[in-house]
Write a structure and sequence with these properties.
Helix content is 0%, strand content 48%. It is mainly β.
Length: 733
Amino acid sequence: MIKHSTTWLLCAVFLLTGATVAFGQEWKTYTNSSQINDLVYNDSEVWAGTGGGVLRFYPDGSNVIKYTNSEGLGDNIITCVVEGGGYIWAGSDSGKLSRFDPETSEWRIFVLTDRDGSSICINDIKQSGDFLWIATEIGISKFDMFRNGGEVKETYRRLGDISVEMPVLSIDITNLIGDRVIATTADGIAIADLNDEFLQDPTHWSTITEDNSTDFPDENLTAATYVGMNVIELIVGTESGLYSVIYYISGDISFDLIAAEGDTINDIRIVDSTAVITANHAIYSYDIVNSPTVIATPSDDVIFRTTINVDDEWIIGTDAEGVQLGLTGENEVLVTGPPSNSIIDIDSDSHGNIWICTRMDYAAQYDSDSWTVWELPFSEGGQWGIEVDINDDVWVATWQNGAVKIDGETVTEYGPDNSSIQGVEANINYAVLRDLHEDDNGIIWCPSYLGYPNRSVSFCDPATDTWDYYSTDEGFDQNDIQAIHVVDGILWTGYLNSGVFRTEIGSNPFDHTGITSTQYTTSDFLPSDDIPVIFSDIIGTVWIGTNAGLAYYDEGIDRFIQVELPTGSGPQINALEADPRNNLWIGTSNSLVLMKADGSGFEVFTTANSRIAGNEVTSLHFDEDEFLWVGTSSGLSRLDYNLGNLVEDIEKVAAFPNPFVMPDYDNVFFTYDGVADVNIYNLAGELIRETNTSIGWNGENAAGEIVASGMYLFHIRTDDGKSHTGKIAVIRK
């Protein structure tokens, strides 16, 4: 079976018992699961490994249960599923092997790692006896399901004459010619005795490659297995068709094309001595007595990936249309989720609905129960940003169609004909927007990337549908804008190669008088002149995310101060957001970073230590319920670190949790919707600790010692002189 994408030492396997998170941090993952990579039937249920988790359902498509990493699955991109030892096993491209126990309904995670500690992509899995045979990007790992709770027994990196650590794309186990394991790589096939105890010796593998056969396929191999009863035949799937391998008495080997010429073979399975071959554009049945027969073809634009047969009913996994029940495609397994896992931007409307845009084709609304999807006009470069305006209309930045507005069921494209947005010089109607921004006055700002003639910035007042623009007359001499932000009468624009412009536009952007601009580059201590994101926090500090790190603008010295992120995070900055306590959340190309408002440090979130959907963070948004929505290239996450109901009235601020039980909780927080100083006192009135609402209190005194159990007082005070005193009960176990 084709999937996304050993030496004399074993691979390591580590057991993960689940990511630990601080109090109040609960993750929920939302994925699209329409790409079906594998199917398995077990105990009256079908399990599907998808590009967005694992699906579990009855063969008629009912009783669908979806598992993602927020439900305990090791990863969301599942390449293969198999039953073994009474468990369901799911392999992933991140090297995480997830085991589901039907008796406890819990997942247990193992991680396959190479000798240098890096994870190993799992491409396919087959089961035999007590072992899983795992096809990986470096060879084959033989995994004992029961020894020490589950461990890798051996890893085979050299399979006969095939190159060392050649990725094994699929694996099969057969007893048609004795117990055999068959490994398929792009460059050849390796076959060995399943019971051979010396498979780490490459000479114990026989191989079929271009060097020892004739008519070897020009395209990569994808899958192979034996088929037949009285007569046995080796069949091989490739990226250009299905082949039969012919063995001659002389010892020569040749390949013969027998079906699916020019089509990619994705899966081969044996059903009652007959091979079922799934190609992109057809499913074939082959018993070697008769020529391969087409049993199903997909409807337009549908690609088949894998097929199983349950009680003489066909269940088909497709590349982008989910699970199809039956050969006709009339029925499918219905699963809710976003239209794609490539989340580009996030916003919310006045009703609390979440809006997203994906890289290609779609915008979608989530109402806490279901998803509604809008298919947008085709844009060659996809979507780049989303904003909800004061009318609850939704604006999408596109690479071709300018700004697209969704007003109920109406979709409107804004370009040269009906707005001030201009396209590129070669085609004035080809308008590219790489960002959108709604300012505090409800104005929608649209930066025209390469807008001609130097009409770089357009803006619209949705209340009156009035458009205007800035060009070279206002000092916009560069037109490679990719980020835009307005705060306190200042327009900030970020460029691909020209750094940042700070333009004073005043309170009325439609008044063009007195507009002045200043350019800042690496000479002004920006980390880079490539600026993908600009953001201002609660107190108005302007933050600049670059492809080489983070900086903020210091108005007093009129230059930028660079911020050193934790080792391993970034340097590419994709998104910035501030929470109600003005902690800064930073989306990077490989992690989510929390920078605490008081400067006390960072916290880093990845798939290794949390249940975030993916490591590449593309967008961030806080909704009205104080949930942080995190867009990634692998799906959408919601982080609930709600610290009780936040209040604006200082007199209603409480400590949470209360009582503060240590070590059950690692921090107590204060439910003020903003930033304020907090002092902790004992009942004798002695000052125990100074802190603030951004970081809370960890139960330590000023010397770093854990305080004794008892009653304590907190005194919170704001910058405008308001204050409040409350109680905290501390219990030490």
